[in-house]
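// run 5 | inverse folding | seed 20
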């Protein structure tokens, strides 16, 4: 027997329609690129999104066209996302931290038909304007008064919208149609295109809503610091309007002082960003002696959240830290580290042990860990294996058929991460599968060694890579940057680590460097580091 319920397609415009109808006066506050703080509402954003759709249709863009954005988190960026989806098109976020040639490569791979850019990134567009033939128009997200002269015939957002009145009916498409695109930053190999659907975006917003997840409600105010150009802004640009949550958009201001200003003037209750941003805020608080009276919760992910960060935010400032793991391919939420009730009475140090893990999967994410022969491994909190996932907001392939080897016939996507999962479902990332060090047939977690070494008081940063070894295949090499004015010895650093890990995990050598290479999303670039140390011989070899 079939259920007798309506077939109500899960289309992204329904989110903004709902927000405008039920939470129309709810604010979106933006630190504008031009400087001043501006205030809009969900009703106005919807109206302007309809105007964007109208203008796109007028210019001949239609279903499945890719609408590229090179922009910070602002109300205008949201309008372009929803306007693009509203014509049945696809918002395609570009990461401005990539090299201009990489950005051009991605635009050409996706064959974007129009490009919206913030004033900040006009020089990037100028550098690639003659290398992106599919782009028919460039729109600068500003008004006529602030519009610069460009040699590539760009128009202002104001001019682009001129003559539109918002009298437009959203284009109806199938809920499985593409809605958005984002390329992985290519930590390994060429960037690969992830293609979201209307259905996956809507379901992902529902997954982000519960209190144990990111946690959205009409009486909360969210500051999405995680950029819309990185992993779909962790779903916030959809989940906030879905729940009528006030949004405060940081624009280009991600330094400690700018973040603090918004946190206090707009009384932000929760926020989400990578560890580097919180590091900047903590330094600012330390220097100024300021406090965080309104902030209740922060979600920290993208790379591992260091223990001291959780300890300081929770212990000193009373802000709950929720450690999260995810990836572009998962829309991106994969797991979140809310404390289960059985842990709430534990002393701080034991709670921190749990919060160092990346948390448990929300409904809609299935997880398993496997060995190299695809045998499923137990959830005992010790055995680690390749982390595989599936769910309605997990990629089923990459644009253009790239990376097929990461997907199997049962629908499991190999994340490229290595992890263990404990009996309570808390997952902990121990490595990327390409970075794990295979020593004598056993695996050594490079991340665990890095975290341990980085806690040494005289070091700024630590990275660990595997170096070829005649007897053990590979052995760990620890690469470190000492703090200014400090010169810890190799023995000193290894002595610090001794006793805290298994003997056979101890690095065979320590190399001192001035710089460790990073990717555009702030992760250690192990490929480059391995090239740098390709001819290195370990003293034990
Ligand atoms: P990439 O940088 O590879 O293009 P993403 O920005 O989507 O892609 O990053 C996804 C990867 O980031 C994950 O596969 C994982 O390795 C890492 N990551 C994300 N969150 C965490 C976390 N909380 N702890 C450790 N690693 C994380």
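// decoded
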């Amino acid at each position: 027997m079939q259920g007798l319920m309506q077939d109500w397609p899960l289309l992204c415009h329904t989110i903004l329609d709902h927000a405008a109808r039920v939470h129309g006066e709810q604010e979106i506050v933006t630190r504008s690129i031009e400087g001043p703080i501006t205030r809009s509402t969900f009703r106005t954003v919807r109206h302007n999104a309809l105007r964007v759709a109208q203008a796109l249709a007028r210019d001949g863009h239609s279903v499945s066209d890719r609408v590229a954005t090179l922009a910070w988190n602002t109300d205008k960026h949201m309008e372009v996302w929803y306007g693009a989806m509203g014509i049945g098109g696809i918002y395609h976020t570009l990461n401005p931290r990539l090299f201009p040639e990489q950005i051009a490569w991605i635009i050409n791979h996706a064959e974007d038909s129009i490009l919206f850019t913030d004033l900040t990134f006009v020089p990037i567009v100028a550098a690639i304007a003659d290398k992106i033939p599919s782009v028919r128009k460039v729109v600068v997200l500003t008004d006529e008064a602030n519009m610069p002269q460009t040699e590539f015939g760009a128009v202002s957002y104001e001019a682009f919208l001129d003559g539109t009145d918002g009298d437009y009916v959203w284009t109806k498409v199938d809920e499985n149609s593409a809605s958005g695109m984002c390329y992985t930053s290519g930590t390994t190999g060429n960037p690969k295109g992830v293609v979201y659907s209307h259905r996956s975006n809507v379901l992902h917003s529902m997954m982000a809503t519960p209190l144990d997840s990111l946690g959205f409600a009409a009486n909360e105010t969210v500051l999405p610091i995680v950029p819309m150009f990185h992993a779909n802004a962790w779903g916030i640009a959809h989940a906030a309007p879905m729940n009528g949550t006030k949004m405060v958009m940081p624009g280009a201001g991600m330094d400690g002082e700018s973040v603090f200003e918004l946190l206090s003037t707009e009384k932000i209750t929760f926020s989400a960003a990578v560890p580097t941003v919180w590091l900047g805020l903590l330094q600012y608080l330390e220097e100024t002696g300021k406090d965080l009276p309104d902030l209740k919760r922060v979600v920290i992910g993208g790379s591992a959240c260091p223990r001291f960060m959780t300890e300081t935010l929770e212990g000193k400032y009373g802000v709950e830290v929720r450690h999260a793991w995810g990836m572009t391919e998962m829309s991106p939420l994969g797991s979140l580290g809310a404390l289960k009730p059985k842990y709430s009475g534990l002393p701080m140090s034991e709670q921190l042990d749990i919060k160092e893990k990346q948390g448990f999967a929300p409904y809609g994410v299935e997880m398993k860990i496997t060995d190299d022969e695809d045998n499923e491994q137990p959830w005992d909190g010790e055995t680690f294996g390749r982390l595989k996932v599936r769910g309605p907001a997990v990629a089923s392939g990459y644009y253009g058929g790239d990376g097929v080897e990461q997907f199997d016939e049962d629908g499991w996507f190999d994340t490229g991460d290595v992890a263990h999962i404990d009996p309570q479902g808390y997952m902990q990332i121990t490595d990327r599968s390409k970075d794990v060090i295979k020593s004598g047939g056993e695996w050594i977690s490079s991340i665990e060694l890095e975290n341990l070494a980085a806690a040494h008081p005289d070091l700024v940063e630590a990275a660990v890579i595997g170096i070829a070894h005649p007897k053990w295949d590979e052995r760990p090499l620890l690469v470190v940057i000492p703090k200014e004015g400090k010169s810890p010895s190799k023995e000193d650093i290894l002595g610090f680590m001794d006793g805290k890990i298994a003997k056979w995990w101890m690095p065979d050598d320590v190399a001192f460097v001035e710089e460790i290479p990073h990717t555009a999303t702030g992760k250690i670039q192990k490929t480059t580091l391995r090239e740098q140390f390709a001819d290195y011989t370990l003293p034990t070899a």
